[in-house]
Design goal:
Radius of gyration: 27 Å
CATH superfamily of the largest domain: P-loop containing nucleotide triphosphate hydrolases
Oligomer: single chain
Number of strands: 9
CATH topology of the largest domain: Rossmann fold
Strand content: 5-15%
CATH architecture of the largest domain: 3-Layer(aba) Sandwich
Shape: elongated
Structural class: alpha/beta
Number of helices: 14
Order of helices and strands: HEHEHHEHEEEHHEHEHHEHHHH
Helix content: 40-55%
Length: 299
Amino acid sequence: MSKVIQLAERVAATDANVLVTGESGAGKSLLAEYIHRLGGRRDRPLVTVPCANLPAELFESELFGHEAGAHTDAVERRIGKFEAADGGTVVLDGVGALTSPLQAKLLRVVQERSFERLGGNQVLKVDVRIIATADESIEQEVKAGRFREDLYYRLNVVHIRIPPLRERADDIGPIGSDIIKRLSTRYGGGQRRLTTEARRMLRSHRWPGNVRELANVLESAVIATRGRDIGAEALGLSRGTPAEEAAREAFEKRWSLAALESAYIREVLKASRGNKSRAAAILGINRKTLLLKLKRSAR
């Protein structure tokens, strides 16, 4: 994430279009806001366009505005989101969800920073910085022809990928502590802290919902905890099997396959109370092979 932040800080000093990709809940919108706040447009508007939730029939009216009488509900002139963001930043949130016809309508304003209000004929020009966010699948959408290649490359001047939380386990502790600090202030009752077991559980969870899921889990835990310490039971997360937890630990510590095998053999021997014949049977090898592996790991 330090590389992500460094790139965001460098691009913030420019007006280049930025494409931020990542899984749902990874923090794409937060990074877009961070880029805006660091840049020279920080004192100008930051306007977000929720592409996935924008009905096709309202697309042009929402983005470009409309003149009075442009359609049944247009009783007066209304400015669109691009006009409202003049001098600032437009965030196209979830741009990959747009259909091909809507992509074509967006292309012109991305290329030329100009448009007409719906029902009008005056060409309006705006000075905006564009940051788009999308799922990582957008590259496959381009290859499959479902997302316009010309629009993609216009938006993707600088590409920033936010890795999912499961790929950056070291970030879970600091992020969690920051979230708990803010939540404790909001809900009162003093500052809470995670127990060692709770931290271990947070680190071992896969977090399919990424930072958004982590924030929800911790908010529930802060509300449910009366004392200072937030225990593992307050998190409401299911524990993984011993095999899953061992595999995660091996991955996080970057163990070699030989080290993982040696650790597993030691655990089986411990469970067998040192009975090598029984341990060999559990491992599915003969006693002689087990002795050779023990000898090799002892070197």
